[in-house]
Write a structure and sequence with these properties.
Layout lengths: L13 H11 L3 E2 L11 H12 L12 H15 L9 E4 L2 H10 L7 E6 L5 H7 L3 E6 L9 H7 L4 E7 L11 H11 L5 E5 L19 H4 L2 E6 H4 L8 E4 L2 H12 L7 H10 L4 H4 L1 H15 L6 E2 L7 E5 L8 H12 L1 E2 L1 E2 L12 E5 L4 H11 L3
Parallel strand pairs: 1-11, 3-4, 3-5, 5-6, 6-7
Antiparallel strand pairs: 2-8, 7-8, 9-10, 10-13, 12-13
Helix pairs in contact: 2-11, 3-11, 13-15
The structure holds pyridoxal-5'-phosphate.
Length: about 375
């Protein structure tokens, strides 16, 4: 039987490849973006209680009503956005699913979607599986800022969507208020929609606070904003997130969601809803992760890497071009095999493999993991 792949150029993701290599070589895994520390036992207790109370059957297709209310309360408090839990919030099995659904309910063959590169690896396959075309706009190395003239030039009558991600994986760069204002100017008067990936909303440093797209009424009116509880509460394995979008977009989103997973894990939703009563749960996160970033950079000060600015996310990029000209994929494999620390080469976040000789380190790890990684890496 002849099978024509819909995604012929997609292989196994680099995250799986590097994690497998890390296991084979008993390397410390700073490659994949997940914490190795325990989550808050109060959240575990809240989910346990929900299960014991019998919250074990399908809940509402759009999300547990109490969780949607809590989400609305949170975004009202943080971003001053009035969001209707009935018509604008849908709880999903993770942010990747929310991103997939946002794109799938809109895109048609022939549509173009503007994507900033380096890009989280799900975006382009999701565009392509829907028959649309990714139009790639590079972020400007080494600060990974946006060249708005390039964005302007990339817009055509076929542009259906622009995807944005702030704080940004893999670079740790963030959007400024000026970036959001530029985007407003570009899209006003067009039919261009937006997908804003904000999974690292709570992980920001040095006094910078995340300006969600929900703060900008002109943008919000045309945006799917996607979030992840896994990233926020150290439970990436729960795969639970949500999408906020205006009613007309949410209606389309739910048409796809209804027949894809229908509803998301009930006890996790109820547990999270009760846990979110406590604002401290998310208000403590910037300081918590900034300490991790600063600890890691302090420990690595005698290593040969040059560190690029990380303003948010779990990640910091280390530049090595001044002491090695190896391709970053070879360099990452060598770090894993010879020094016992797995990292991610940034070229894999570009379709054309652009190699600026930088690798991504995830510092969302136990202090002792970071200490041991630094000990191993100072001899590079
Ligand atoms: C930018 C970005 N978006 C989305 C996700 C996935 O979130 P979730 O695990 O909730 O699907 C990740 C995870 O690495 C990410 O880095």
């Amino acid at each position: 039987m002849a099978l024509q792949s819909k995604l012929p150029s997609v292989g196994t993701t680099i995250f799986t490849v590097m994690s497998t290599l890390a296991q084979e070589h008993q390397a410390i895994n700073l490659s994949q973006g997940f914490p190795d520390f325990a989550m808050d036992p109060r959240l575990i207790d809240a989910v346990d209680q929900a299960m014991r109370e019998g919250a074990n059957q399908y809940t509402h297709m759009n999300g547990h009503p109490l969780l949607r209310e809590r989400i609305a309360g949170k975004v009202g408090h943080l971003y001053g956005a009035g969001v209707d839990p009935q018509t604008e919030i849908t709880v999903t099995p993770g942010a990747t699913y929310a991103i997939y659904t946002s794109l799938t309910c809109i895109l048609r063959p022939g549509d173009e979607v503007i994507v900033f590169e380096p890009a989280y690896d799900s975006y382009i396959p999701t565009i392509e599986v829907n028959g649309a075309t990714a139009v790639r706009v590079p972020l400007q190395f080494p600060h990974y800022s946006i060249d708005w003239d390039l964005v302007k030039k990339a817009i055509t009558p076929r542009t259906r969507m622009i995807l944005l991600n702030t704080p940004h994986n893999p670079t740790g760069s963030v959007w400024t208020d000026a970036d959001f204002r530029m985007l407003e100017t570009l899209v006003e008067g067009t039919d261009i929609l937006l997908m804003s990936d904000e999974v690292y909303e709570h992980i920001t440093f040095d006094g910078y606070r995340h300006p969600s797209i929900l703060k900008y009424p002109v943008l919000r009116a045309r945006a799917f904003a996607c979030f992840s509880f896994g990233k926020a509460y150290h439970c990436t394995g729960w795969k639970i997130g949500y999408c906020i979008a205006p009613p007309a977009l949410t209606t389309e989103f739910r048409k796809v969601h209804q027949f894809n997973c229908f509803s998301t894990n009930t006890p996790a939703q109820l547990g999270l809803a009760r846990y979110l009563e406590n604002r401290e749960a998310y208000e403590s996160l910037p300081a918590f992760f900034q300490r991790k970033r600063d600890l890691f950079l302090g420990l690595m000060k005698d290593s040969p890497f040059r560190w690029l600015d990380s303003k948010g996310s779990y990640f910091v990029l280390g530049s090595y071009g001044h002491f090695s000209q190896e391709p970053d994929t070879d360099f990452a494999i060598r770090l894993t095999k010879e020094y016992g620390v797995a990292v991610i080469p940034v070229s894999v976040f570009y379709q054309d493999g652009k190699d600026d000789k930088v690798v991504r380190f995830c510092f969302a790890k136990e202090d002792k993991t970071l200490e041991e990684a630094a000990r191993r890496l100072t001899s590079v």
